[in-house]
Design brief:
Helices cover 32% and strands 34% of the residues. It is built from four helices and seven strands; from the N terminus they run E-H-H-H-E-E-E-E-E-E-H. It is globular. It is α+β, with helices and mostly antiparallel strands and 136 residues long. The termini are far apart.
Length: 136
Amino acid sequence: MYIDCRPETLFPFFIDPQKMMKWMGMHVLLEPKLGGALRIDFNGTDMVAGRYVKVESNERIVFTSGWIGSDTLPTDSSTVEVRLHKQDSGTLLILKHSGLPASRRPMHLTGCNYYLARLNLLYWAMNLVLIFLQYH
C-alpha cells in the first residue's frame, strides 16, 4: 500500500499507542524494543498479544502475534513484519503475516485491508485539516 507521507512520519503510528489507537484498537500496549510486549484490544473482546522481535527506526517492525484465548492462533504463534520503503514523496508499506493457519487467512486479510485503509484515510484527513487551517 502506498501512503503519501514519509516513512519517518508513518513509523510512529506503529510504535506509539496514542497514534495507533487513531487507526486500530481501542486500548493498546506497545513496548517497541526487543522482547517488548504488544497488545491490541480491538473491541473489548477480541485481543491480540505478542512480542517485538525487531524494531528498525523508520524502516521495519517485526513482532509475534496471536489471539488471546485462541486455540487455532494463540499468542506468539504468528509473525507480522511491516516494512516501510521510501517511494517518491511517500511510503510503500509492505505487510507480511506468516504462520497463519489456512482457516484464519481470509479473516486476517480482510482485517489487514480494513485497518491499513483506515491508516491511509487518517493521514489523508490530517492533511486536509492542516490545509484548511492554513487557509482559514
